[in-house]
Amino acid sequence: MNITTQNSKGSPSNSAKPAPDNFASKLQKMHPSDIGKVLLRIDSIIKKEPKNPKLFFDKGVALMRLKMYKEAAESLKRSIDLNPDSPPAHFQIASAFLEMGRLPLAKKGYEKAIDLNPNSSAAYFKLSIVLSKMGKNMDAIKDAEKAISLDPKRFHLHMNLGHIYVHLIRLDEARKCFEKAMELNPGALEIKQAIFNLERLQGNKEEAKKINTEILNDHPNDPRALRAFSELNKSDIDSNFAERLETSLLYHDYPDQARSELYFALGDVFGKLGDTEKSFKAFRQGNTILSRVHDYNENGEVMAGNFTREFFKNNKEYLGKDLGLKKYDFKPIFIIGMPRSGTSLTEQIISSHSQVFGAGELELMGKAVTEAKRATKNKIEMSFPEFKAQMNAIRESYYDELIKQGVTSNYFTDKMMYNFRFVGYIKEAFPEAKIINVRRHPMAICWSIFKHFLNGRGHAYKTTEKTLAGFYLMYSDLINFWKSELEDPFYSLVYEKLTEDQKSESQALLDFCGLEWEDQCLEFHESERVVRTFSNDQVRKKMYSGSSDAWKNYEVHLKELTDILDAQIKGYENTELVN
């Protein structure tokens, strides 16, 4: 394969044949071993032409193809040093940072690419993705719309804007975007899947089933549609469908994420058929494959927890002091806990109240805390003015973005369960807030996490029993830390007690939130609000008890989990489950 090479003045090099302009597209079709050979050739030419920016650019693009993002960024940085005004180089290095999750650097790179080439719809498109991931969805909408204005016939640009609207629960606007995309590319699978997702989010189960059936008619081996079929058509699941999933896995070369998704569907089907051994093996295989998609940085998680503890220990003297906080009319209700603990059910009950807006899993708190820590260079011991400034920065960043997103209700819920990491920050920066920690049997939580297809870096801990148990212990330790260091840090809601005595537990919950009782809070399943989690189907059903015992059917396979969590299991059973 020819390699695009130029000397430092930008003229074609004599040391290699000029390559076609579609270098990147050709890389997409190459086997990784062949890309390795291309990299060796590029390195050999770099030795002769160490000041040729195009060589470092091509090397970076090839490394991106191999998912070696750190090395790609280093090579692209060399290219930019040699040619600072190259829009493609800034675009590609931003893409490398995006893949690594280094969002501020990705944002900076795409913005530079736009400065150099203001007509790049691709740069605006990517920048909107970064901003959405940073929780700046209103800014993301502006850049997504700019991308469309530059290239209105690209259907994926309309899809991107639609997905941002879905994230903001502005589903009517999302639907218009998806319908426009459908006009531009009739019958495209990803558009049908997006509309299917809309119907499911809005509780239109029959319409969702209809669309999913259409997808399977056209794409009988689509992994997402097959998994959706197993979830939506439980009465139709039989051994024939299990065989269909196994055949698809055997004869189709799915990418890792899709293959993982199918194994989770297969595990669910075998579970419904009563074959717990095959079911567990399928779930385990799905998790093993998923671990290749998202690496789990366990050390980073531990270090972050340690930093939080040390920060609040070192600055304990400032807790509860007057911080001169900016006034807002909001009365937030933060719902924290582990995934699958009952946080969605809790939010559905509270948001059924006429005064409460259910905002779902907002990513604003984590972003606000991260930005504030970065601004102080992760300083762990502060003066009072520094502590005061940091808490004000967190408060204003969170609320100002909330206002941008159009939230106007005084009472609103934020169900980002991982905010358990930030209880101390919430107590200081949002003294008007209520915090609810939802508890459930440790094994019920961990088994439900293990058996569900939870995709994304934030859930990367779930793929082995060891790391899953470790994450639960980290959560438990941090909750205990807040209880020992803060005065009245949160309200503890026990899931099992809620399902067994719905009315009295719901009344106590609303009383804690400062809300008068309303009967519709008992009929939460009739609410039309959107739930953007795996619990979407469950919260549209009447409350039922006993689900916390489902893990016992798999207990023989879960010895590693039960051994590691033995103390937590006994402690929970001897306290929360004793009447």
Please specify the SSE layout and strand pairing.
Elements: H1 23-28, H2 32-48, H3 53-65, H4 69-82, H5 87-100, H6 103-116, H7 121-133, H8 137-150, H9 155-167, H10 171-184, H11 189-201, H12 205-218, H13 223-232, H14 239-251, H15 256-272, H16 276-293, H17 298-314, E1 331-337, H18 343-351, E2 356-358, H19 364-375, H20 384-404, E3 411-414, H21 423-429, E4 434-439, H22 442-451, H23 465-485, E5 491-494, H24 495-500, H25 502-513, H26 559-564, H27 566-575
Parallel strand pairs: 1-3, 1-4, 2-3, 4-5
Provide a concise account of the structure shown.
The protein is mainly alpha-helical.
Explain this structure:
The protein has 579 residues and is mainly α. Among the domains are: 220-293, no CATH class; 306-575, P-loop containing nucleotide triphosphate hydrolases (Rossmann fold, 3-Layer(aba) Sandwich), CATH 3.40.50.300. 60% of the residues lie in helices and 4% in strands. The protein is built from 27 helices and five strands. The protein has helices spanning 23-28, 32-48, 53-65, 69-82, 87-100, 103-116, 121-133, 137-150, 155-167, 171-184, 189-201, 205-218, 223-232, 239-251, 256-272, 276-293, 298-314, 343-351, 364-375, 384-404, 423-429, 442-451, 465-485, 495-500, 502-513, 559-564, 566-575, and strands at 331-337, 356-358, 411-414, 434-439, 491-494. A five-stranded parallel β-sheet has the order 2-3-1-4-5. The longest helix is centred in the last third of the chain and has 21 residues, at 384-404. Mean pLDDT is 90; it is low at 1-20 and 532-536.
